[in-house]
Request: fold
Amino acid sequence: MCGISAIASYQPVAKKLYQCLINLEYRGYDSCGMAIFDQQEQQINLRKNIGNVEEVNAVENFADMRGIIGIAHTRWATHGGVTPENSHPHFSNDSNFVIVHNGIFSNYQSIKKKLIAEGFIFSSDTDTEVFANLLQSKYQEVNNVELAFISALKELEGSFAISMICTFEPEKIYAVKKDSPLVLGICDGANYVSSDINAFIAETKDVILLDDYEYVILTNKQYVIKSLADQKIVKKNIIKIKWDQQTAQRGGYSHYMLKEIFDQPLTIKSAMHVSDEEIKKIARKFIDKSQSFLIGVGTTYYVAMVGTYLLAKYAKLYVPAISSDEFPTLVQAHSDQHMIFFSQSGETYDTRMAIKVSQMGGAETSAIVNVVGSSISQMVNDCIYQGSGPEICVVSTKAAVSQMVILYRIAMETGILNGTLSIEKANDIQSNLKLLPDIIEKLINEESGFIRQLAQETNQNKNWLFMGRGIYYPIALESALKMKEVTYIHAEGLPAGFLKHGTLAMIDDSLYSIFFLPANDGSELYKTTLMAIEEVKARSGKVISFCLVDDLETQNLSDHYFVIPDVDSDIMPLIELVIAQLFSYYSALHMGLNIDKPRNLAKSVTVG
Ligand code: F6R
Reply:
């Protein structure tokens, strides 16, 4: 949540900073602003307002701002409402220091009181303005920018990524991080700081990842990274980023969500290219440790749940999935455990806290993460990068499906090690997973029209139930979450077998239920899900189902159905999930909603 950018250049920075803000907007979009040092006036100019980046630019005209060094911020409100005053950047009272900040200073109230007693005046409700004024106060004491910066940071607790410029050293950007991401982009003639590589990927692919408690002082020609603890210089490697700007852009698609759904054939291929060694290393831990847990939150909790079903099926192991936010309450971590964490962004606060709790107890930790160099990837013992490329839409699609594919591979490998899955069967499933990209590509190209039409027909519906049994249950949960996020319409996911234990009371002819089913193979899973459909139909409920073209039994019971290709039953759940993603997308499209940036959400939830 919130995106930070800063540039020190030989050239005017306003336009580039604006582009960085656009590229970071998925992290938060309720207000934004920019501060640039103007050499002619020898002062920092600041413009900010509420609205998304384009809206604010239309009023504030960022391109007008003169200067070759500046900072910028796009906000997702945490402390203080969405007002121009609470938008970033924030000046110190004397306008000599200006700050952008991501994270939360947990003890800011007490410091604010102290500063007010010293005579400081606050114009916002933010914790960030406290840092700006504390900096001014410290500078008045020590008369040295670096020492003031360090001394102010030492007083504040919580999480932060900060960039700062000031009139005393107008050629320098100061930046620091703890528990919030911050990366440097290094190139000839300009150096960048940002919350995310995507901000400056068009300018440079040479990147340095800052670690917690490191700060950087950077000009247009050099950078020095130091440790906050002792101010010693830290040597860091430059990483070459492989993806390009095009991967991060929308291409011809009307929304990132649609592009990212259509990206899935490629991202599944990347998931299949994760090395066997990496998969085996994690699988081994399920065998070696006496207890394991799968942990994520939101979509990645549902990813974890899919893992529970896969490990039960292939490795005959019960590995519970736990939502990251509930993890500290539920689990007593110890050294004979293995925890595997799932996170697209690699920055999610609840998941980071669950890792910390695990590590304090001495548990072995692994993670599957999309964003290279993210906090979670650095925290765990072993990290698999899923290689899905940037996921820009706030709502997760391709990252989740890729993580599920990696889980298939881990569960199969665990089954082989455990002696519960034959190599032949594993090869069989592996071959089917390899077919998945082509199957999905064909499906989304051929079926989009029908899915779109059905989304339009059911558009007035105000309540959805999404149901499935077995592995189709987390698929139903994840599909319901997609619907809620992009349409703002109530969608409840539940196990199909649970229906008759209460929720059935809701069924009438105005309520739509979507059923996720396996193929009509005579299995218990199929038969018992069909029974739930019958329960709904008997009460005049509306039914949409997934079925094969020749499954007349399901079709006759359904008001509408998505025809699924006759593929191996192991990979069927992933195909149904992709169709459900598209269905949610088109439902929101017909409603004219802001699909890539749903209200009240942010891509990366770095606060608790
Ligand atoms: C849903 C969604 C969120 C995230 C959750 C965890 O579409 O995007 O529920 O899945 O906030 O985020 P990561 O995966 O970044 O840890």
